[in-house]
Recover the amino acids of this structure.
């Protein structure tokens, strides 16, 4: 599975590691800056946060059950799907 990181956190971590070195000189700072430049050349990944929700089970006036997405309010009668077809929310919350 692919993992994604925050670029600023990686840069901060690189500088933090060099800050903790016993021998901190111009070459250490230069190395940290080169690593930062390399990280800056990596293009950002096209990702977005995963919405997580659950189906809220309701019963209509005809006694048919349906689910309402807790993320966006979308209503569906098709059973409890793993993802909301409207907002893409992952339905893995408690009491799905």
């Amino acid at each position: 599975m692919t993992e994604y990181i925050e670029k600023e956190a990686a840069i901060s971590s690189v500088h933090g590691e060099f800050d903790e070195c016993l021998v901190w000189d111009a070459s250490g700072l230069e190395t940290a800056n080169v690593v930062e430049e390399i990280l800056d050349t990596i293009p950002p990944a096209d990702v977005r946060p995963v919405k997580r929700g659950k189906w809220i089970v309701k019963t209509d006036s005809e006694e048919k059950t349906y689910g309402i997405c807790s993320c966006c309010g979308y209503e569906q009668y098709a059973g409890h799907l793993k993802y909301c077809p409207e907002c893409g929310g992952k339905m893995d919350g408690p009491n799905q």
About this structure: The chain is about 30% helix and 10% strand. The longest helix spans residues 26-41.
